[in-house]
Write a structure and sequence with these properties.
single chain, about 450 residues, alpha/beta, Glutaconate Coenzyme A-transferase, eight-stranded mixed β-sheet, seven-stranded parallel β-sheet, 15 helices, about 25% helix
């Protein structure tokens, strides 16, 4: 078949970027690394200044945040990954606090302009359509609003279905590169994480629709669902942990109200197995983040169950999930999108799950959040809270009642000092509430 496009080099393609432009980079494993390198080469050559870089979480190298590019690239990400975290904390790069579900809105409603979208796609099919593969997120919105779209065509990008299908005609410059996608292997759960997984699994009902992320706790939860029935998936991302349950028929989406029978997500991150799984798979719909993370769409799924983690939780139920004190660690992400959506769903459950202490034994349940910490999930939004010491439902509980419940799932080593902090905060009536167990 005749080639449907004329490729240029990465160096030629990025010449379209001008000083002062805003550039969107596609995310997670689907970063167009050859374009990033070519862009940085132009920066080193003194050809650019004040170019704004926007993206969600990205894997791999992110050289544009290095000190040598100060004044050349201004990094304003929608989420902070490990590759840019130190630079953001040092002030060499920056972060835009935003709900993940509203990142598309920033482009579509021109809060942030997008001059150039740098993306990576699959080779075109016979109809002239390419696929955004493992990451749709805000990239569609960036393409809609961009003056120019530069796409790396890479045979390793899976041909996912859903909103990820875009016509080749929407792309201005094509570059070819066959660098394999970056893979992420989930760590093996610790005994503490396995215990948390069991508590969370007990809260998940047959027919539930799940949202959870990547990592040890989600994998620990999924490993406990082998005897469940008719589980659905509507999430912002998924990884390898779902594969055994799909093969077993546990995950089939048969009770979902929207997108029945489909696994819905906006990005995927994991091993090569998960990229192979979504390649041409009609079971999977990769959707715009404005759809996957809309709380009012999420709320339409019966028994919607969201499971998210935290850095700290205080005695009133405030959840910090984005920062260590005043130092940004990650970002708001989709936590509140799904906490709010799940809590509004019929039979829904919003769960915050975390180990009670860090791996170094530092208490994560505190009288008050550290100075400068962000309350991502407010005390008004939190429902279920799970640690390795149990699961408690804080919804409808007073401040004193929830303090007692939260302390009950704290590490025993810290419960006495937390009780003292609660008494200092609430006075003698707190002891009356606890002694009489009036809740």
């Amino acid at each position: 078949m005749k080639k449907q496009y004329q490729a240029v080099t990465a160096a030629e393609a990025v010449k379209v970027i001008k000083s002062g432009d805003h550039v969107h980079i596609s995310s997670v494993s689907n970063v167009p690394q050859c374009l990033v390198k070519a862009l940085c080469d132009r920066g080193r050559a003194g050809e650019l200044k004040n170019v704004y870089i926007h993206h969600l979480h990205t894997e791999g190298a992110a050289p544009y945040v290095n000190p040598e590019f100060e004044g050349i690239f201004q990094h304003n990400a929608f989420f902070v990954g490990a590759n840019v975290r130190e630079s953001v904390q040092k002030g060499l790069a920056d972060y835009i606090p935003v709900f993940l579900g509203e990142t598309s809105k920033l482009y579509r409603e021109r809060y942030i302009r997008c001059n150039v979208a740098m993306i990576q796609v699959s080779p075109p099919d016979k109809f002239g359509y390419v696929s955004l593969g493992s990451s749709v997120d805000a990239t569609l919105a960036a393409m809609e609003c961009a003056e120019f779209t530069i796409a790396v065509i890479n045979r390793h990008v899976p041909r996912s279905l859903g909103d990820s299908q875009v016509p080749l005609s929407r792309i201005n410059y094509v570059v070819e590169d066959d660098t394999p996608l970056l893979t992420v292997e989930a760590p093996v759960p610790t005994e503490v994480e396995k215990t948390i997984g069991r508590y969370c699994a007990e809260l998940i009902e047959d027919g539930a629709c799940l949202q959870m992320g990547i990592g040890s706790i989600p994998n620990a939860i999924l490993s406990c669902l082998g005897n469940h029935k008719d589980i659905g998936i509507h999430t912002e991302m998924f990884s390898d942990g779902i594969l055994p349950l799909v093969r077993k028929g546990v995950i089939n989406g048969s009770r979902k109200k929207l997108d029945r029978g489909k696994i819905v997500s906006t990005f995927v991150m994991g091993s090569q197995k998960i990229y192979n799984f979504i390649d041409g798979n009609p079971l999977v719909l990769m959707k715009d983040v404005e759809y996957t993370n809309d709380p009012f769409i999420i709320a339409q799924q019966p028994k919607m169950t969201s499971i998210n983690s935290a850095i700290q939780v205080d005695l009133s139920g405030q959840v910090c999930a984005d920062s260590l004190g005043d130092k940004i660690y990650s970002g708001v992400g989709g936590q509140i999108d799904f906490v709010y959506g799940a809590s509004r769903a019929k039979g829904g459950k919003a769960i915050i799950a975390m180990p009670s202490t860090t791996r170094h034994g530092i208490n994560k349940i505190v009288p008050a959040l550290d100075l400068g910490s962000g309350a991502v999930t407010t005390r008004n939004h939190i429902h279920w809270f799970v640690t390795e010491y149990g699961a408690v439902n804080l919804y409808g509980r007073s401040l004193q009642e929830r303090a007692k419940l939260i302390i009950s799932v704290a590490h025993p080593q810290f419960q006495e000092e937390l009780e003292k902090a609660a008494f200092q905060r609430f006075g003698s009536h707190y002891h009356y509430v606890c002694k009489n167990n009036i809740f």
